[in-house]
Structure formats: C-alpha cells, structure tokens
Design brief:
The complex is a heterodimer of chains A (412) and B (393). With 412 residues, chain A is mainly alpha-helical. Chain A has one domain: Farnesyl Diphosphate Synthase, CATH 1.10.600.10. Chain A contains 17 helices and six strands. In chain A, strand 5 (240-241) and strand 6 form a beta hairpin. In chain A, helix 1 packs across helix 5, helix 5 (86-98) runs antiparallel to helix 9 and helix 13 (331-339) packs across helix 16. The longest helix of chain A has 31 residues, at 185-215. With 393 residues, chain B is mostly helical. Chain B has a single domain (2-390), classed as Farnesyl Diphosphate Synthase (Orthogonal Bundle). In chain B, strands 1-2 form a two-stranded antiparallel ribbon. In chain B, strand 1 (166-167) and strand 2 (170-171) form a beta hairpin. In chain B, helix 8 (96-103) packs across helix 12 (179-199). The longest helix of chain B has 30 residues, at 230-259. Chain B is globular, with a radius of gyration of 21 Å. The two termini of chain B are 19 Å apart. In chain B, 49% of the residues are buried. Classes of the chains: A mainly alpha (412), B mainly alpha (393). Chains A and B meet through helix 5, helix 8, helix 9 and helix 10 of A and helix 10, helix 12 and helix 13 of B. Chain B: Heterotetramer composed of 2 PDSS1/DPS1 and 2 PDSS2/DLP1 subunits. Chain B: Its cofactor is Mg(2+). Chain B: This is All trans-polyprenyl-diphosphate synthase PDSS1. Chain B: Belongs to the FPP/GGPP synthase family. Chain B: It catalyses: 7 isopentenyl diphosphate + (2E,6E)-farnesyl diphosphate = all-trans-decaprenyl diphosphate + 7 diphosphate; 6 isopentenyl diphosphate + (2E,6E)-farnesyl diphosphate = all-trans-nonaprenyl diphosphate + 6 diphosphate.
C-alpha cells in the first residue's frame, strides 16, 4: 500500500514547482527531514521572490502557473495515479537503501523532485495546452473533462508523455560498470543494486504507459507514441560516447554543427513532444494537416527549449560555477567546434570520461567565440517556428499561455 | 529441419550422459527420466498423449509421428521468424550498434517456444473455427514474432542486472556492451514490438499484449522482496511465475485466438492453455536449476538459490525440513546457506513434487487442447507439454 514514509520521496516530485528563471529560489519547494523512525517529514518552504514582481518580461514561473490554471489543475499532479501503487512504494523503499551510495539513480530521483527548469516537467502541460488551444471535433460530451476543457483521453496522453520521458531519464541514469572499476565489493554491490532498481522503475513506467495507451483504443496513436520511445532509445547511440555513454562531439559530425545538434535533439526530445502534440490532435479528431502542425509545434518547442538549456552555463547571469561540467554536445560547443577545430584537442581528453576535460578552458574558449550567439539564434529560430504554428489556432487562453511560455523561455 | 530435430535429440543424449555423474540422491528421479529417453521421441510423445486420455483415436494420415513434433509440423512457419524479426528491427534504426545489440539474440539458436506455441494455437484455432482452414493469418504470425521480441527484450534487461557472462552458449549482451546501451536496446525492441502490435489495428489484441508488459514488471517486483508468511509463500511464487513467464505465453495465444475471431469462451480456453504450459515450463526450469546444473555443465549449480530466490523445489522441501524457512527469509545470504539448502532439497521430495505439479499443468493444458476441433495442430498442442517436461535446457 501507499505510505507517506516510503513513497513520499517519489511522491514529492509531484509537488515541486518549477523554479523560476535567473536562479532565484523556487516559489514553493519542499524539503524532507528524516525522522528518527526513518520516515520522511515533508515540509513546505515558501519563498516569494521580489524579482518576480519587478520583472518586466513574462516570467517563466508565472507563465507556467498561469498556464496550469488554464488547464484546471496543476499538471504536476498528472502522473499521480501511477505513483499510487505497490511497485512505486517498493522502489521508494529500495531507494532508501541506496542513500549513501553514489548511484546516479539518486540524482535522477532528486532532479525529478527538485528539478530546475533543467527537466522539462512541463511537457504534460504543453500537451494539455495545445489540446485546449485546438479544441475538439465530434466528441461525445461524456469524454470531455469539462473543467479542464480537454478530453479524458488527452489527459491520459499527457500522462503517458510524462511517463515515457521519466522512464527514459531513469534508464539513462544507469551506471556502466566495468571490471576493476570499483575496488570495494560493497560499492559494486550498491551500484548493481541501484541499476536493478533503476531498470525496473523505468520498465514499470514504460509498461504502464503501454497499458494506458492501449486503453485509449487508437492504434495509430499507439504506433506514434511507440515510435517516440524508439527514437528516445536510438538517440542514445548517436555519435561518440565515453565510458558512461556521455556524448562527445566528433570532427566529422561538427562539419554541420546545426545538423548534428538537430539530429541528436530531435531523437532525444523533439520526437516525443512533437508526437505527443500530434497525438493529442489526433485524439480530438483534427485533420491530418493540423496533426502535422501539432508535430511541428512540439518539435520546435522542444528544440527551442533544449537550445535554451544549452545556453544556461554560458549566460552571464547564470550561476555557473567555473570548471563544472556541461554537455559537450550542447549547441554552443558544437557551433564553436565547427569554426575552431583546435578545441578538439581538449575534447579528446574526454574520450574515456567527459570528466577529464578542462571545462573552465572550454567554457572560456566558447565564450570568446560565436557559439553563444549562434545558439541564441537557433533558439529564436525554433521559438519563431513554434509561434507560427500557434497562429493557426483561434485566439484562446491556452494559446496565449503557450505564447507566454515561449516568450518566457527565450528573450525573444 | 530434420537436422535440427536430430540435433535436439543429440543434445539430450549428451546431457543424459552428464546426468549419470550426479549424486546418488537424485538417482531415483533421474531413473524416471532415463526411461523416457530410451524410447524414440516421437513414439514417446505419442504414448504419453494417449495416457492423458485425450486421444481416443489414432491420428489420421500416413505419418502420425511426424505430425507429432510441433517443430517439424511448423518448420515452414517458423523458419523465417528470426530473419523477419531482425529485418523489422534493422528497419527501425540507422544506428549500426543499436541494430547489432537488438538483433543479437535473434540468431535462431533459441528454442522459439513462444512463437512455436503461438503459431500452433493459431492454426489449431483457425481449424476449430473453420474446419479444414488452418491457414496462418499474417497477423497471427506477427503475434508470434511479437511474443519472441517481448521475451528477448526482457532477456536483455535481465542481462543488465544478472552478471552472467554467457547465455545460450555465447557471450551475453552485457559481456559485450555497456549496461546503458543494453537497457536502451531492450527499450528499443519493446518499442518496435509495440509498433507492430499497433499495426495489427485490433484494440483487444493491443490491450491483451500490453497487459503482458505490466505482468512482466510486476513479476520482477515480486521477486525483489518477499515478506509473506509461509502459507502465502507458495501462492506468491505461483503468481510471480505466472506474471514472469506464463502471462506472455497465455496472452500471446489468446491474442492469436482473438485474431481468428474466437469468442470469449474460446479465447479464454486458449489463454488457460497457454497459462498451464507457461507454468509447467517455469516449474521445469526451476527444477532443472537443481538437477542439470552440474560442474560438468560449466554453469554454477543452483543459480536461483544464489540469487536469493526460493523456487518450487525449495518451497516443497520446506514441508519436510522447516530449517529452510529462516534461510528463505534471509535469501540464502549466509555462508553455507546455498549448499545446505541445495542438499536439503535433494534429500526431500521437492524435485519430485515439482515435477508432479508441472505434469499436472501439462495434463490440464492437454485436456484443454483436446476440446478443440481435431487437427494435426490440435494434436501437436497436446504434445507441447511433453517437450516442456522433458526438455533439458
């Protein structure tokens, strides 16, 4: 059965609110303290940022919470149902055993809990908003969630989107174990056990998303969403990888930096959001043409979002700690490498482990080059393309909310 | 196909010789096995299916023996199954490495039990629906492929966790590729299988087959922890066995029956057939873990015990040797537990009882199959159980 003490750890993910831009404290964040009996007490801390009020631009956080009001409930509750199960309570129980080991599953769990805007937790929200913005055709009254203005099936699809994404993140968080990597047997056991839990949790989400999809009784949708799962897994095989499967750029591929970046991120992000948006329009009975537009919207939004994330370490306002790691296949780095091959000398040091490169050096080199500006353009390009798709819909709250999210994301 | 058939026999004889080396305690059980192996396989299966009382009349046709071997009977249906699966997977990725990992186990070396039972049931049900029309529907063949793909995806994920270096006589995927890539390849196979399911455009079939995925995961979770009391333990074990093994077979044959246009009682009958065959299959698997895992086979004895799992032989042995209970509770973690438990299982009647239970499920499966319209496929369904019981690997 579901218990706070055990399942709380995972459960809290649902309450975490996206932290606001510019690194100001999250509006509502939750912490837990371990009680003597081993249970977790969940306490809510509220900070109200003064920045928020003075901010002229649509704030990210505000845009999201406004948007959540439009679809009727906090989307972070979307996947609540799959958490109310023996299996997840079981996982939470096992996660506690892992505390103290350094299995990345803990990090994954934590990032799902606290998440900055580094996790696109709002994907379900986007799916619901586009559903609402597009409206629906010829559907029976019974099938509509009146309060939210979306169909029950669309809500289920939004849930499936989040489950697929989470499952993928969790599977990505496995550790590659090599012979002789760990001298201590205890450490090895911990990591093996962590892998087991991570694998099972991801499988659990994947299996549940299949069951949920099957219940929608739309086989085209099942095929579409399954192909998104396929794309996510294929994305993990692109290009050079270090021992932990972290991606590395290669001289051949960066000849076309933009193409390389796009291939990677369409598979790992654009496909899922694009196909989810396409799928929700399919459920609402829209034309094939409009479904295609839905796909483009989701894809471009995801790519704009990714470009925005890639920019984060390079922003002057960011809280980037010099020397800390960032993605070596992020857009600014790839763009820089295209025009300046000499940086590969540093990149090559990461061939075994990306941890071995001098991030401070790469950071400052990229900062001096065109990478940052080119990435900003890339983000703008995708934002605009997403905006263009939005204009095919009639004016509505949901449409405005989506615009606000796009504006808040970038500095259009 | 004939050479595969004889190869199968050779493998059995080979293992039979190995069996001669096992300890005295096991001799009684093995004797029963030896007796079976001395007869010709086709004759043996024929005799046994008569024993189940399901076959009152002789099989029609000049060569009933040939019709009795399901693998021979389905040689044509099964011969390209692996090639087609590989092609389907290769079509879905442009990444050579992903393609290699995903197709690695589809090398035709597996038993293909799931496709075999699925195709057999398809043809038997088709005959049942329209006498004389046993033609295999393309969609039913797809289900056979899907069942093997789901099974293999779960093998890949098992390999990520288990540290075994070999599977089916070749290096296991985890020995060749990293955990993350293997996990992703498993997801990939599952995704491609889901796409194939969707393309069948049948709502119930999609539901039936997605239930399998949920069962598989829930079975794994059940295996993680067991705090149940001694009374609940066997029920827990059987439920776990159903979810981890039988559900896939049961639901695949059910799906294939639905595609043949079977009504609810008929598809339920098919489901029960698959469930019984699946349970028997796993029971025998658990039994073999104690019997055929000799040092000579190069596989660690009692692999399940080492993983902390109490399977049917141990649970049966508990009745006579209650000292096994605390060992089960601590998942055979203390030094000497595995050896001690292994010894007690062999001293008890646990292995016989497990085999008896497996035979009961096989008999039930055979009984269910006998209520289908008579056809070579229906007869072969009754024989599948013997393959399951008498298999050595």
């Amino acid at each position: 059965m579901f218990r706070w003490g055990t399942a709380g750890v995972v459960f809290v993910r649902q309450f975490s609110v996206l932290s606001s831009r510019e690194g100001c404290p999250a509006i509502g964040s939750y912490t837990f303290q371990r009680r003597k009996n081993g249970d977790y007490a969940v306490t809510e801390k509220r900070y109200y940022s003064t920045k928020l009020a003075h901010n002229q631009k649509p704030d990210w956080n505000k845009a999201v919470s406004e948007a959540e009001k439009i679809v009727g409930y906090p989307t972070s509750f979307l996947s609540l149902r799959w958490l109310l199960s023996d299996e997840i309570a079981n996982v939470a129980l096992h996660l506690r055993k892992l505390v103290g080991s350094n299995h990345p599953l803990l990090k994954t769990a934590k990032s799902l809990l606290y998440n900055g805007r580094n996790n696109m937790q709002a994907w379900g929200l986007i799916v619901l908003l586009i559903s609402k913005a597009a409206g629906h055709n010829n559907v029976q009254e019974m099938e509509e969630d009146k309060a939210a203005g979306v169909l029950h099936s669309q809500r289920a699809l939004a849930e499936v989107t989040e489950m697929i994404r989470t499952s993928h993140l969790v599977h990505k968080g496995l550790v590659n174990i090599y012979p002789g990597m760990y001298a201590e047997q205890v450490e090895l056991n911990d990591l093996t056990f962590g892998n087991k839990i991570a694998l099972l949790s991801g499988d659990y989400l994947l299996a549940n998303s299949c069951v949920e999809l099957a219940s929608l009784q739309n086989q085209d949708l099942v095929e579409l969403m399954s192909s998104a799962v396929r794309d996510l897994s294929e994305g993990e095989f692109l290009g050079r990888r270090d021992q932990q499967n972290n991606p590395l750029p290669s001289p051949d591929e960066v000849k076309d930096a933009k193409g390389d970046w796009t291939r990677r991120n369409v598979l790992s992000a654009g496909s899922l959001l694009g196909k989810s948006c396409q799928g929700t329009l399919k459920l609402a009975g829209h034309s094939r043409e409009l479904q295609e537009q839905g796909y483009l919207f989701g894809k471009h939004l995801a790519l704009a979002w990714q470009a925005c994330l890639d920019l984060e370490p390079f922003r002057t306002s960011s809280q980037y700690t010099p020397g800390s790691a960032f993605n070596l296949t992020s857009a600014p780095v790839l763009f820089h490498l295209q025009h300046d091959h000499s940086l590969f000398e540093e990149i090559e040091k990461g061939i075994d482990s990306v941890e071995n490169v001098d991030y401070e050096k790469i950071h400052s080199t990229v900062m001096d080059g065109p990478g940052f500006e080119l990435t900003k353009n890339l983000q703008k390009e995708h934002s605009q393309q997403a905006m263009e798709v939005l204009s095919v819909f009639q004016e509505s709250d949901a449409q405005t909310a989506l615009r606000n999210i796009i504006v808040a994301m970038g500095d259009l | 196909m004939a050479c595969i058939g004889s190869g199968r026999l050779c493998a059995r004889v080979e293992k039979l010789c190995l069996l001669g080396q096992v300890t005295q305690i096991r001799r009684k059980t093995n004797y029963a096995r030896l007796k079976q192996f001395t007869t010709q396989p086709s004759a043996r299966t024929f005799v046994q299916s008569c024993q189940y009382g399901s076959m009152r009349t002789q099989a029609p046709g000049p060569q009933p023996q040939v019709a009795m071997d399901p693998y021979l009977l389905l040689a044509n249906d099964l011969k390209d199954i692996y090639t087609d699966i590989r092609r389907e997977l290769e079509l879905n990725t442009s990444q050579p490495e992903l393609s290699r990992i995903a197709t690695y186990y589809f090398d035709g070396q597996g038993k293909a039990l799931r496709p075999m039972v699925t195709v057999l049931m398809s043809r038997a049900v088709n005959c049942h629906q329209l006498p004389g029309k046993s033609l295999l529907l393309p969609s039913q063949r797809e289900v056979a492929m899907i069942s093997e793909m789901i099974h293999t995806a779960s093998l890949l994920h098992d390999d990520v966790i288990d540290q075994a270096d070999f599977r089916r006589g070749k290096p296991s995927v985890n020995a060749l590729w990293s955990q993350k890539k293997v996990a992703m390849a498993g997801d990939f196979i599952l995704a491609v299988a889901s796409m194939m399911i969707a393309r069948l455009h049948n709502d119930s079939v999609t539901k039936i087959l997605s239930q399998v995925l949920q069962d598989l995961v829930q079975g794994e979770f059940m295996q993680l922890g067991s705090k149940e009391t001694e009374n609940e333990r066997f029920a827990h074990y059987l439920t776990k066995t159903y979810r981890k093994t039988a559900s896939l077979i049961a639901n695949s044959v059910k799906a294939t029956a639905v595609l043949a246009g079977a009504d609810e009682p008929l598809s339920e009958l098919c489901f029960q057939y698959g469930r019984n065959v699946g349970l028997a299959f796993q029971l025998v698997d658990d039994l073999l873990d104690f019997v055929s895992s000799t040092a000579a086979m190069g596989k660690p004895a009692a692999a399940d015990l080492r993983l902390g799992l109490a399977t049917a032989p141990v649970l049966f042995a508990c009745e006579k040797y209650p000292e096994l209970n605390p060992m089960i509770m601590r998942r055979f973690q203390e030094p000497g537990d595995v050896e001690h438990a292994f010894e007690l299982v062999h001293r008890s009647r646990g292995l016989e009882q497990t085999q008896f239970l497996a035979r009961q499920h096989v008999a039930e499966a055979s009984r269910l199959a006998s209520s289908l319209a008579e056809s070579p496929y229906q007869k072969a369904l009754q024989v599948v159980g013997d393959f399951v019981i008498n298999r050595m690997k």
